[in-house]
Amino acid sequence: MAPPSPINFGILGCAFIAGKVSRAITLSPNSTLYAIGSRSYEKAAKFAKENGFPDSAKVYGSYDAVLDDPEVDAVYVPLPTSLHIKWAVLAARKKKHLLLEKPVALNVGELDVILEACESNGVQIMDATMWMHHPRTAKMKEFLLDSSLFGELKSVHSCFTFAVDKNFLENDIRVKPDLDALGALGDVGWYCIRSILWAADFELPKSVLALRGAVLNSAGVILACSASMQWEDGKTATFHCSFLANLTMDLSVVGTNGTLRFHDFVIPFEENKASFLTSVKSGFTELVTGWEPKPSEHTVSTDLPQEAHMVSEFSRLVGSIKFDGAKPETKWPTFSRKTQLVVDAVKTSIDRGYEVVEVKS
Fold first, then answer.
1. For the whole prediction, is pTM greater than 0.70?
2. Tell me: the pLDDT tens digits for 324-354?
3. Same domain, 126 and 172
């Protein structure tokens, strides 16, 4: 029996990240670069040429033209967050499955409009949080779920920062209130919050408190912030995200028996392999001069980069709907919505002068 035809992807816009995802679509075994649309034909054609689109790929001078192409199965949308609600809803109404760049919306109210459009039109939606799809992530989850090794979750600590230049601070869409008003919270903070929820098996915290000292630009867009979270059963979490500090991608997950740590949780140090550290029932040596047992390092190899695994999984779900009559997978929009709820709570806490904010689903 011949394998199903690959999923035809259209891309809306020529953002920098779209180059990375274009490559992922090419590397994924069950997808193909079918179309690119920009606000001008010339820009779309230049992007297609520079990113190795096949000669057969359609080039369009508008986003609407991509959505109107009956051969496009799915669209990747890397547009500024303020444009997501318009183009994601239009894509869903055109029956195009949706791989949506994060943050998925400016707030959960906008996201709910997008999710309703996807549900009512039977299309799959997934956010482009790439590290969730790395084979390492599944191996780490096995450790967290092993009660004899990890035990009960007690705390999570996440940090994602990178230092930007003057041009970024003045011109990047992520510092413009009319384009990406969530700033660093929506960009790097999204990853921190997702990592915490992942460790907590997507149980929402009871409350969120933004920590004093958030840095905002003159337009009120967040450049750096920190927050803490509290759960009903006493679990806690903290995160820090920033455009103003050296590149750091740390995650620590602490349980009653074990600890998981790694230092490249968003983008692995190397594309074809990634490592993590675990320690189980650690203590000190007799004279308190070292650890016993020492942490163990685990390395997971992969034949595809994590973004290609993401595209492949998304394409598998789309193919199941297209060829087998399956229903859209609800796990991914649920993860998106819970992440957005916590992003909203942190933003609200900052806006209210660092008040505690209850997280309500």
1. yes
2. 999 999 999 999 999 999 999 999 999 999 9
3. no
